[in-house]
Amino acid sequence: MNDEVRIIVFNFIVHRSSFIVCFVPLRLISDPLWHECELKIMRRRSSFDPVTLEIYRALYTSVAEEMGVSLRRTAFSPNIKERRDYSCAVFDAAGRVIAQGDHMPVHLGSMPAAVAAALDATALAPGDVVALNDPFAGGTHLPDVTLVAGVFLEDEVIADCGLRIADLKKQPQSKSARARKPSPSAGYVPAPESAIRNPQSAIFYVANRAHHADIGGASPGSMGMATDVYGEGLRIPPVKIVKGGREDADLMRLLLANVRGAAERRADFEAQTGSLKTGASRLLEIVARAGSREASVYAAHLIDYSARRMRAVIREMPDGVYEAEDALDGDGVTDEPVVLRVRVTIRGERARVDFRGSAAQVAGPVNAVEAITLSAVSYVFRCLVGADEVPASAGLMEPIEVVAPLGSVVNAEPPAAVAGGNVETSQRIVDVLFRALARAVPARIPAASQGTMNNLTVGGVDLGGQEFAYYETVAGGMGARATRDGMSAVHTHMTNSLNTPAEALEYAYPLRVRRYAIREGSGGEGATRGGDGVVREIETLVRARASLLADRRALAPYGLAGGGSGSAGRDSIVRRDGTTERVGAKGSWQLEPGDRVRIETPGGGGHGKRKR
User: Fold this and answer.
1) What phi and psi, each to the nearest 5 degrees, are found at residue 337?
2) DSSP 8-state secondary structure symbol assigned to residue 117
3) Residue 200: pLDDT band by 50, 70, 90 thresholds?
4) CA 389 to CA 93: how far, in whole Å?
5) 270 CB-side CA count, 13 A
6) Which of 107, 151, 184, 384 has the lowest CB atom count within 10 Å?
7) Phi-psi region for residue 566, left (φ > 0), alpha (ψ -120 to 50) or beta?
8) Residue 601: pLDDT over 50
9) Does the pLDDT at position 323 exceed 90?
C-alpha cells in the first residue's frame, strides 16, 4: 500500500485477546462518509465498557504526546529541543488531569497545582493563555514556566475533522448517546453540566511546562546560590500572556527585558503557545466525532480507573508503618545536612505519607514547595503500579494522603529560595520514600540512584556580542534492582530528560565538550551492581559565569539488602594553565577562556550481598 494509513481499532474482545484493525488511507479521512462512519463506531455502545475506555486512554495520551512533539520541534533553545526539558498534559472541565505525555515526572505531578492556580486567579476565555512560574502559586521553581489554555466549543470547522462544532451544538445527540449514563463507581465525578452546555465554558484545559534556560536573577541560567526567591529570577503570578488570541505586547516586553537571551526566550514562549493550540485542535476533533458528553464521561472514567488501580496496588502491600530517613548534603549556605524523614502508613487500600520530622526550610535554594512534594510522592507510587497502560491521571493520588508541614523543607513558605527544591530535594524525597517502602515490598524497590540532577549553568556574552545561557542536567548511575544491575549514564527518577548532544551544544554556545565518558567503577557493589555515573567536562571559549547546583557529594547513594553505596560525586574547575581546583556542589565561579568545568556524577547503590 503506497498511501500513508491511519490505524483504527474497531473492536477488542478481551476474553479472547483478539482485535480487528482497519487500515484507512489518509486521503479518505477527509471524506464526510468516513467521518459519519467513525462517529457511529465511537457512539455504538449504549453503556460504559472497557474497550471504549482504552480507546479514550490512547486518544487523550496521544494528544499530550503530540503537544510535546509540537513544542520540541518548534522551540529554539537546546534545553527544550534537545534535552526535552518540558511536559504537556490534558485536563477536564474541572481542572483534573486526564492524561500526560511521557515527559518529566517532576513537572507532571506538580502541574495540576499550576492549572488550579490559573483557574483561581483568572477567567479564561477563548483565545486566552495564562502564564505562571510562581512557586508559591502553582509553580515549582522560576525557570519552569507553565502555560494554560481552555478548550472551547467554537463555531468553526475544526482542522481534519470534517464536522462543524456548531452542528453538534444545535443537534441533539443520538438516542443511544442520550440514554448513555456512566455506571456509578467510587471516585466518579462527572464534569460540570455547564461545561458541556455553555460554549463559553471550557470543556477541557491544556497545559505545558518548559524549563527556560534563563528567567533572570543574579546568575546566568537562574539556578545560582540565592537565599530568597527574589534573587532567583523573574516571578510570574498567573497572568494572561495572550488575550483573545493576541499576545499582550506590554507584558511580553516586560518579561523579555528581565531575562538573558531574550530572542530565544520569546521563541520558546511562542513554541509553548503553539503546542497548546495543537492540543486544543486535537481535543476538538475528539469532541466532533464522539460528542462532548461522551468525551467528558470517559475522561471521568479514566480518572476513576486510575484510582481503582492505585487502590489495588496499595491493598496488596502489607498493612503497617514504614519509616526512613535520608538527607541532602547541605543547603549551600552551610554544610549541615538537611534531613528528610518519612513515615508511610498502609491501611487497607489507602496510604498516608507523613513528612513530619523533616528539617525546617533553610536559607539556601533547596527548599521544595508543596507541589514538588506531591509530585515526588505521585511518581513513587505510580512506579509501583507497574503498568504503562494506567492513565497518569488525577485518580492516582486519590487513595494517598500526604502530610507536609508548612514551613519545612518539603513545604516551604515565601520568600524561600526554591531553585534546587525542584531538582534536588525532589530526588531526595524519592530516595527516602523508596527506602521506606523497601521495608514493605523489598523485591520491588531498587537501591538509590544518583539522587541528583547535577544542574550546570554557564552564561555570558558570546563571540558575536550576544548573551547566552546554557543549562543542563547531567546523567548518573541508576540503583541496582533485586534481579538486575542498574543502568549506567542515565537520567533517573524525577528527571526524564536527555543530554545535550555535543554537536548541538557547540553549535548553539561558545562552549566545547572536552570529555564525556562513563565513570568506571562508581556503581555500588552487590549481588547486582549499581550503574556507573559519568564524567562530563565542558570548556568555555569566552569569559563566563558557571553555577552548579548538585548533591550526593558527601552522602553517597545508599545500597539495599547488604549492597554497597555508590560513589559520591565530585566537581572541579580545570584552569587553562592546567591547574585543577576542587569546588563545592553548590556555588558559582568566574571562568576565563580555556577554563573547563568537570562534573563527575554519583553511581547508583548496589543490591544484595556480593557472593564471594
Assistant:
1) -60, 145
2) H
3) low
4) 23
5) 14
6) 184
7) beta
8) yes
9) yes
CA nearest neighbour of 552 among 438, 474, 472, 439: 474
| Distances 448 to 58, 83, 180, 413, 586 between C-alpha atoms, Å | 32, 23, 49, 29, 21
Residues 302, 54: contact at Cβ < 8 Å?
A: no
Q: Which amino acid is at 34?
A: W
Q: How many CB atoms lie within 10 A of CB 347?
A: 12
pLDDT value at 36 more than 80: no
Place of cell 491544556: 206
Q: Are 405 and 356 in contact (CB under 8 A)?
A: yes
Classify residue 459 by its DSSP letter. E
Closest among 37, 46, 47 to 8, alpha carbons compared: 37
Which tens digit of pLDDT belongs to each residue from 67-126? 999 999 999 999 999 999 999 999 999 999 999 987 677 766 789 999 999 999 999 999
Report the relative pairing of strands 350-354 and 400-403 from DSSP bridges: parallel
**Which cell numbers in the block locate residue 288?**
466532533
What single-letter DSSP state applies at residue 422?
I
- Helices vs. strands in the chain: H and E counts, helices first: 16, 22
Residue 90: is it exposed, middle or buried by C-beta count within 10 angstroms (0-12/13-18/19+)?
A: buried
Closest CA to 239 of 229, 227, 250, 228: 250
Closest CA to 140 of 376, 394, 471, 327: 376
pLDDT at 504: 94
Are residues 420 and 549 in contact, defined by beta-carbon separation less than 8 angstroms? yes
Distance CA 217, CA 471 (A): 14
CA 248 to CA 240: how far, in whole Å?
A: 8
Q: H or E segment at 278?
A: helix 262-290
Element spanning 350, H or E: strand 350-354
Separation of alpha carbons 380 and 268, rounded Å: 30
CA 211 to CA 104: how far, in whole Å? 10
DSSP class of residue 442 equals G
Q: How many whole angstroms separate alpha carbon 175 and alpha carbon 192?
A: 21
Contact 130, 122 (CB under 8 A): yes
Question: Cα-atom radius of gyration of the chain, to the nearest Å?
Answer: 25
Q: What is the DSSP string of 537-571?
A: EEEESS-EEEEEE---SSSPPPPBTTPPPPPPPEE
The count of other CB atoms within 10 Å of the CB of residue 582 is 9
Q: How far apart are CA 556 and CA 566, in angstroms?
A: 6
Question: Could you tell me the three cell numbers for 316?
Answer: 496488596
Longest dimension (CA), the chain: 81
> d(Cα 31, Cα 10) in Å, to the nearest integer?
18
**Bond into 78 cis (ω within 30):** no
The answer to whether 149 touches 17, Cβ cutoff 8 Å, is: no
CA dihedral 270, 271, 277, 279 (to 10 degrees): -150
Give the number of other CB atoms < 10 A from CB of residue 120. Answer: 11
DSSP-based three-state secondary structure for 339: strand
Q: For position 25, what pLDDT does the model report?
A: 42
Asked if 515 and 434 count as a contact pair (C-beta separation under 8 A), the reply is: no
Please tell me the total number of residues recorded for the chain in this structure: 612
* Contact between 329 and 362 (Cβ < 8 Å): no
Amino acid identity at 433: L
Total Cβ atoms within 10 A of residue 521: 11
Q: Dump pLDDT digits (tens) for 126-136.
A: 999 999 999 99
